[in-house]
Amino acid sequence: MNEVTVVGLLVDVVAFGLMLYLAALGELIAEKAGVLNLGVEGMMAVGGVAAFWSGTEFGSPVIGLIIAGIAGGLLSLIHALVAVVLGGDQVVSGLALTIFGLGLAAFAGKDYVSLPAVPQFGALPLGPLRELRIIGPVVFNQSWLAWFAVVLGLGTWFVLERTSIGLGLRAVGESAATADTAGRSVVRTRVIAVGVGGILAGFAGAYLTLNLAKGWSEGVTAGRGWIAVALVIFGAWRPGRTAVGALLFGGLLALEPRLQTFGVNISPILVSMLPYVLTIGVLIIFSIQSRRRPSVAPAAIGRAYRREER
Amino acid sequence: MLGWHLARREQPLRGGQTRAVATGMLLALVAGAFLLVLSGENPLDVYTTMADAAFGSSRGWSTTLGRAVPLGLAGLAVAVAGSMGLWNIGAEGQIIAGAIFGAWVARLLPDANGFVLITVMLIGSVLGGGLLALIPAITRARLGVNEIITTLMLNEIIIRVVRYLVNGPWKDPNSAGFPQAPPLPAQAALPTLFGRANIGVLIAAGVLAGFGFYASRSKWGYELRLAGSSEKTAEYAGISLRRKILTVLTLSGAIAGLAGGIELTGSSSRLVEGVANGWGFAGIIVAALALMRPSGVAAVAIAFGAVQVGGLAIQVSGVPASIANILQALILFGALIAGVFGQYRPVRTRTTSSVTAAAA
Predict the structure, then answer these.
(1) Which of A207, B77, B207, B246 would be B256's cystine partner, CB 3.0–4.6 Å?
(2) Which of A78, A91, A106 sits opposite B322 (nearest CB)?
(3) Per residue in A63-91, pLDDT tens?
């Protein structure tokens, strides 16, 4: 194993990790407001195809990112309408959103399969930092979308923990009736949270098709939306811990295709199970812990709120 | 402020769910038509081709019924758990587990006669689905771990198990690059019922009818629904929730596993990665539309079978088959929306000032 392969691996660990992080942050924001959205996989797929189409059409990754965000956000509004405004079941609505999103993406992307992605998110102009040994390529030469993901993570932490907007959002996710009594609009807060989650899932899709998979194909999301859902649990609904989990799961994604070249004689398919196995393990640990201290999950998650039925 | 809110109707609209599903289908067809027009197709032509393929001939009917089998069993699996308020999102994975166990039986008994082999394969598939569901069942019953997430994660795990098997230890040495297991022995194929439908149709119909009858008449079924409507009442009535959760989730997985076994012996003729084909996820929509009732599951499964057969038919003329999945999801959204308006009516929100004004 020489330095080139190790650096190549680490570059991918960070890139895959931050792609997952974008989607997981979106899900975290929605869940913090009390809305489980199992539509991440579908929103990522639609974001991915939207980014591929618009990025190629206009020759600009920025436009690709914006259109992907709009597409993911619009799709999430279906979930917001059905599960939040009308109070339908969050589980069914979210799963239907994934089925719808995957179908829509396959439908819209039928002419783009196996075409090369033209524009990519480039690196920031960090000059000599990018030339540093190991840390240059692994950190400073990452695309600006990777940096953007880090900024969004810090921003999410700040808003959730340090501002009244975040306090209101968490209150809605812990006890909707209390938040309502305190004058916070539960429906509006949740719709916005779900919408932001959709935009971020769209961003993750753009990252995936433009920079990582470098193209569109049906099934390009390959279960990564479910990893994002898992990450929120793994990270105990906290932006910081979720980032650590994202790097770990991103590391597993990056390791998968390289195992053989590293001379490790384990099937990469078996390694690709690990994120899900770890998540089940973490859930079990949380459940055992929650007997002694309060649960880490937002209390109102999964429950619709209707004012006259509180 | 939005200016509107939903108030519960004193009496829900008559015909409730049937009306909601019908409205959902109508809304889905309209929304689907928009998509088709956008992509330059004539929606009327597409829908006619789809309906004709699904119901226009005895061959079409047999294909539709054949597709309704995994949809109906997966729907029943979700509904069994759902009637107790549990979500089995893992039917997709349990179908795969059932198919893996069925294929394993066929590897162990390649020379058994057809009847014995098929019977043992189906029993194996029931065990396979049940065993996989035992993980969320035990963790939920013993530790209170959310079964939605565990079943969801197990889907992703088991699909990698089958991928590993058909790429590695069980790979057919004669199928060059294709990741698939060797063909099943010839006598392992389920006998044909008519056209393209096999006797899996009868098995599924029997399981659905049997379960529907038993659940509506037995103490077990009553306790199930009681536990679903109120855990406290159920515990007060002396029902062990833990044991109920354990048996119901495992039974749910076993039913989905049977779907995998029928799929394996009935149509795929060998184990492949895509054996579950999204039926487990579609089954969740089926169960939700049927409000977790077995009779409704059968009806919705046939309708969804038709949509899928139609989707395959239009693929030939260049329209992506994914329109079938799009339509299924849209039916659900439409029905959820219609269902809400069946129970609630929109009323204008009175602002505080108008209330005071009225009081004065």
Answers:
(1) B77
(2) A106
(3) 999 999 999 999 999 999 999 999 888 99
State the smallest CA–CA distance between residue B9 and chain A in angstroms.
Answer: 12
Number of domains in chain A: 1
| Chain A contact probe: residue of B325, B340, B352 with most A CBs at under 10 A | B325
Cβ atoms within 10 Å of B3's Cβ, excluding its own = 8
Q: Calculate how close chain B gets to A129, using CA atoms only, in Å.
A: 40
- What pLDDT score was predicted for residue B12? 67
pLDDT of residue A9: 92
pTM: 0.92
What's the gap in Å between the CA of B58 and the closest CA on chain A?
29
Q: Where are the alpha helices (DSSP H) in chain A?
A: 3-32, 40-58, 61-79, 90-108, 135, 144-162, 164-174, 176-181, 186-206, 224-234, 239-255, 268-271, 274-289
B228: tokens are 């679903």
Query: Residue A300: its pLDDT value, please?
Result: 85
Comparing A240 with B356, which gets the higher pLDDT?
A240
Chain B contacts of A104, Cβ < 8 Å?
35, 322, 326
Pick from A91, A100, A185: CB nearest B326: A100
For residue A189, the domain's CATH number is: 1.10.3470
Chain B residues 259-278 with CB within 8 Å of chain A:
278
The top-scoring range by mean pLDDT among A66-75, A120-129, B215-224, B317-326 is: A66-75
Query: Do the domain assignments include residue A126?
Result: no
Enumerate the domain spans of chain B. 69-291
Give the DSSP letter of residue B189: S
Residues of the domain holding A232: 3-120+134-309
The answer to whether residue A129 is domain-embedded is no
